[in-house]
């Protein structure tokens, strides 16, 4: 059975921290509360070997009254049961038409030193989406959920290809499982693609988090299935490493090659713009990699689909220039030009001295204007979130841009300084040795005045339909140039002729759950991030 969430009462945001799915593991000794040594199974009764979804046991969740509290997505028909931490005579309305089953014996969630028997209630549910209601104050803890096949039997063990290591549920996956998450790019090569944190077949941990599940929107899912969207991590980077990308520039300006960075740095953003389009963004933005300190150019891919027709409207790909690396913690003042210090204080790392060059006459000078973006990385000795401002080539029809923020970057700059007091970031350090929640990423789209926003205008692009470009903007003239399809560094692009999209939204867009990671707009100040480390399965650095 795959898919699970529990909604945060009082809002439409979703919270699944503290939940854990145990396939075929309901047995004596199983602990159903991840936060403390509570709710341990003493006697599973006739249900040994069933799947069990352990939910959050906090008593505060027992007081809400809603018929949409726990969300289940079943991949096939199932017999679903709840372990009710109350009495059979005092049930919420939604549970009264469920059939009573056998009792199970579990240590009391509110008193782990004492065990007692609790009733179970069952109902057959078809494949698809289902909501279970809340406790309504009628039990001392939130119910746990049991799942059996439609005939009541335990789920069968998934088949493992002969000769390969057998994955163990709720542990790290063998390497071969991750190898299943690949897609053939438009160039015919195989690339890693989006993968969930937890493999839904073997329920083992893949160890990394890639953001939005691109299949959550029907239009995008169909385009991915048909091959019109190829979510290939590194396609543009591979093209970028085959080209000098400028014909007359100085050799020391060729430091824009793609540095080694883990696949986990590729993050996906999927959202409905509330204007009839589904957007899918792939951005190499992860905060675990040391390479981001010196690597200016990061892969950016964008797809737009028409929600009603399912038509692909745009498929655009390039190496976005994210400019110089700045000290995000240098706030609280302004420089001589009146700019916030966090937007002008350059790090001076020995690995990339060009980052600190401020003389425009120097051939290695990294500009900080509207022609490039910027990266702001905070220090470990001060607060501050990480900001990525990618550059959007006008040659691809872009109107304006957007900024991405990471509230809790996994690594930060060491608080080192040179003799002049300028931050040097001699090394990248983990934010906290015990910190492993995953990243909380969000973005802002311009358009607060309701007359502007982020757009794609076909009539401003260098071509429409299918065409090919270089992977980089040429630093000699600041333009993205056309390529022939047969050129080694040619990147395939697509813009529907006549396309004119302007997404207007002055709000923050945040992920509403850590499972599908759908981005939705929220007013400033109402962000309620949940942990993005499902079942504590992430490996540090991912």
Description:
The protein has 542 residues and is mostly beta strands. 4% of the residues lie in helices and 28% in strands. The protein contains 3 helices and 32 strands. The protein has helices at 175-178, 218-226, 235-240; strands spanning 4-6, 20-22, 41-43, 51-54, 70-74, 78-83, 99-100, 104-108, 111-118, 120-125, 128-132, 144-149, 182-184, 190-192, 266-272, 277-284, 297-306, 312-321, 325-327, 374-377, 386-389, 398-399, 403-406, 411-413, 428-430, 441-444, 454-457, 465-469, 491-495, 500-503, 508-511, 518-522. The strands form 7 sheets. Strands 19-20-21-23-26-31-32-15-16-17-18-29-28 form a 13-stranded mixed beta sheet. It has a 6-stranded antiparallel beta sheet with strand order 2-4-12-6-10-7, with no helix packed on it. A 3-stranded antiparallel beta sheet has the order 1-5-11, with no helix packed on it. β31 (508-511) and β32 form a beta hairpin. The model is unreliable at 1-11 and 244-257 (pLDDT under 50).
Quick one: how many beta strands? 32
Q: Tell me the number of helical segments per DSSP (H or I, 4 or more residues long).
A: 3
Low-confidence blocks of residues:
1-11, 244-257
**Category by helix and strand content:** mainly beta
Strand order of the largest sheet: 19-20-21-23-26-31-32-15-16-17-18-29-28
Portion of residues in beta strands equals 25-35%
Q: Specify the helix fraction band.
A: under 10%
Question: How would you classify the quaternary structure?
Answer: single chain
The end-to-end distance, rounded to whole angstroms, is 26 Å
Give Rg in angstroms. Answer: 26 Å
The mean pLDDT is 86
The description of the largest β-sheet is: 13 strands, mixed
